[in-house]
Amino acid sequence: AKCMGGDASMMKPTCTWLAAAAMCASLAAAFSPVAFVPRRAVRFTRSGGGMQMALSKVTDITKGKVHGEEGAYVAGYWVPYDQCEEHFNIRGGSNEKVPVVPCPRSRTRNSAEKEDGSYDVAIIGAGSIGAAIARELSKTMASVIVLEAADDVSQGATKGNSGIVHAGFDDTPGSMRAKFCWKGNQMFPALDDDLHFGYQLTGSLVIARSPQDESFLEELMERGKTNGVRNLRIIHEDELKEIEPHIHPDSKAALFSPDAGTLIPYEYTIALAENAVDNGVEIRIRRQVEEIKKTEDGLFEIQVDHWEPESYIDAKSKGSQVKNAIASLLGQAKSLGNYFGGEGENGPWQKFPALKKGDQQVDIESMKLGGSGSKKAMGGVSVATEKVRAKYIVNAAGGYSDKISAMIGDTSFKVKPRLGEYVLLRKNQGPLCNHILFPCPGPYGKGILVQKTLWGNLILGPTARDVHEWPDASSDPDSKEAILGQILAACRALVPDFDTSESIHAFAGARSKTDVGDWIIQPSPKDAHFIQCAGIDSPGIAASPAIAIEVVDLLTKAGMTAAPNPAFNPKRAAIIRPKRGDEGLVYSGDTREEINSMGVSAEANVVCKCEKVTEAEIVEATRRSLPVDSTQTMRKRTRAGMGGCQGKPWNYGCECRVAQIIARENGEDTLVVGRRPWKATSLFPRRWLSDSDKKILKVVSKAKDAKADEGDAGVVKFDT
Hints:
Helix content: 25-40%
Number of helices: 18
Mean pLDDT: 87
Shape: globular
Distance between the termini: 63 Å
Strand content: 15-25%
Radius of gyration: 25 Å
Low-confidence stretches: 1-55, 704-708
Largest sheet: 8 strands, mixed
C-alpha cells in the first residue's frame, strides 16, 4: 500500500502488487479450506497527480459475528466496535445536511420541480430497483421525482425476500439476469462502504445429497463461469462438514461461491433512497398512479391519487382533537394507541385494554401495491388528486408494472405473481449455519433455503407458488399448515436441528414474474421516453446497482441530457449504532406512558429491550430525509419491535414508547402515528404464538423420513 502514495512513476510496482494480490486470492479460492476468500474492498481516488488506495476493510472476518453486536459488517467484512465510529457511524455523510424540521406528511422536505413545474424523470416505484435508479440519477443535475403507492419505500417485493446478493452462477447464460447479476454483486462492497446499510460476505453453498446432485454442481459451476462468475469451487464432504457442522449428515458436496452476500433488503433500499433525496431527488409516498397521458408539449402527465389511512383522517378530525384536549385537562394519559393483538394471544392480554384484534387482510392485489402498506390494506382514503409532468418515465412498479405499462398502451407483458413465504426464528438459532445454504435448484427457482440473517436470526424459505395456477386467485388453495410444512420439512433436509418453537414471525412477498420469462429493461416500443424496468424478480437486489447504471444509459440514449451533480455526496452514515453488551444503556421501568421515566440521556435510554434500540436512534431516523410516521416504518430503520418478543406489550411496551417519540418529533399527537395493523402474520394465526401453535409447527416440520413423536397424532390444525 505504501507505493500507492507516490507519483505516476510508482504505478508499475503498484500494478504488480495488485496482480500478485489477485493471484493469491485465486489460489485461496481454489485451495483454502476456510469459508471465505480474503479480499480487499478497494477504492481508487485521485489526489493531485497520483492515485491513492482507500481501504475500508479492517479485518478478514466475514462470519461468526452478528451485525450490531460489538461491531458491524462494512463492505463485506467485520469492523470491531471501537472502529465503528470511523467506518460505520461516519461523519460527513449526506444525512448531515437534512434540515432539523419535521418531514411533511407523506413526502420529502425538498421539491425537485423545475421552474415550469415539471420534472426531467419520474420514477414509478420505490423498491430496491426504483431507489437504486433514483440514487444513480442523483449523481446528475436531472430533476427527479419518485412516486410510491405504498406508505413507505421498500414495501413491495423488496420487503418480502431473503436479502441475498447472489453471485449469478445459476442464471441462464445470455439472459438479462446473467448480464446484470455478477456485475451488480461486485459493486456491493464499495456501495456499502458509502451507504452503510450493512453488508456481509457470507458466501453460499449449494448442497448435494446424491450422485445426481453432485453432477449438477459441475453443471452449475460451468454455467457460472460462462456468466463471468469468479471464485467458484466444489468442496467435498469433509470440508463441507468442517465449515457447516450442523449440515444434514447425508450431505456429500457443495458448490461454494464466496462472493454471495447478505443484507437486509429494506435497510438497503432506505439507504439508497435517503442518499438520493439528500442529493436532490424528491419522493412522495402514498401516491398511486391512476393514469398517464402525453400532453401537447411532449411531456407525460401522470395522474396520482394521494391517499392517507382512514385512522389518520379520523385522528385528525376535530372530534378526536377535542377529546384529547379534555383528557389532557383532566390529567388523563394521552392515547397510546392499540397493540393489535387480541384475545387468546400467548400472554396476559387481559391486562391491556388497548389490546384489540387487528382486522387487516392483505391479498395478492394489495401485495402488488405495497402489501400491508397499500391503500387497500390500510383502509386508505383519497385526499387529493395530483398531476405530475415529466419528460421521461421509468416504470419500476414491480408487481404493478404491467398496469403502469398499459397506461401508455404497452400491453406486451403481464405480471404473474409468484408467492414466496418465509419463517423467521430467534437469534439463538442463527449459529446453526454459517453460509447461505441452498438445495440443488428446481424448476421454480433456487429452492427453499436456510440462512443466517445479517442481524443473526435464522430465516427459512421461500416457497414458490404461482398465483396464476390457482383455481381462484382470490382464494389460496393451500392451508397455512401445509405451506409451513413445505418450508420447514425442506429446511430440515439442509439443517435438521433447528427448533420450530423459536419461530417469531412469518412473512411473504409476491415476486413480479412476467409471461416474458426474463427481465424487461428497455424503452417501451410505444414511447422511447418510457423506460421499462419490469419483471425484476430474483436476483434483482444483487443486480440493482448495475440495472440502475443501465437505465440511466437508456435515458441518455433516449435524449436525456444532465450535467454531473457537483454537490453529489455518496456517503451516508448508518442510523443504528452498534452496542457492546449493555454498556452505557439504561432500561427504564415498566411504563408505557413515559418515553424516558428515568431522565437519562437519549443515547442511553432503551426504548426496545430485545434489540437494544435507544431513543437517540429513533430520533435520528425521524430526522433523516424520508417521512417516518408509523411504528412499522420505524421498525425497518431501527429494528424497534423486531426482536424475539415482537413488541409484546407485557414485555417492555416498545411500540408505545416508539410511537410517542415519533409523535413528539413530528409535532403530532400519538393518535396519528400508525401502528402494526394486522392481527397475525402471513402464515401464523396470531401475532404471538401459543404453546399449541408451537406444537403444530413441530409436527408439520417433520421430514418425510422422520417418525412422529407420541402425542403428536391429530394435531394438524391451528386453533383460530
